[in-house]
Amino acid sequence: RRLNHRAAELLSKPFFVTVGTNAGAAKAHFEGLREAKPDIVGFALFDNFGSVPRDFPRGLAHHQWKRREIECYFATKSALLEFAKAQGRAVGGDLFGPLYTGDFEKLLDDIAASFRRIKRMSPWADEAKITDDFLDTVFAEFYQSIGLPMLTRKSAYHVLADHVTPEEIDGEVIEVLDAIVQTADRARPVS
Prior knowledge:
mainly alpha, 6 helices, two-stranded parallel ribbon
């Protein structure tokens, strides 16, 4: 949506199956669907968990992110700060947006500094597992500091994408969206 890309419409109501990092399960599921519809097409998208198996079935396009996980593409510092500002506005109106942003920026800087002190990978590194290693801690600390229950868990981290500016969106994301559109263009829906 942030890019006004044609894929946004296609992804508004996708048929998808979560297979985690199990490329074999994706292939097997697709093969099962192909039994019913031989000309079916699909797109499999994986976090970077190492090598992706070869030999995907005909019609199943696939991509593995170069970064560790998809959240690495939209959990930027500026997106997190915009998210905090939006949370402040939602809780207390326009007055609280900047207050939340200041507290959140200090929190981000403190946690990133603690990573450096203990010689852990930067949370902003491409190969970082930003969800488990960083965002879980950031959100737990943030909500505790403002006296609210944990409102943003891993299953909701996708909301950060709404706070990324189009200029911040990595070219790889656009390539994947283009590939999804190309796959959809090859689809032959059942009438």
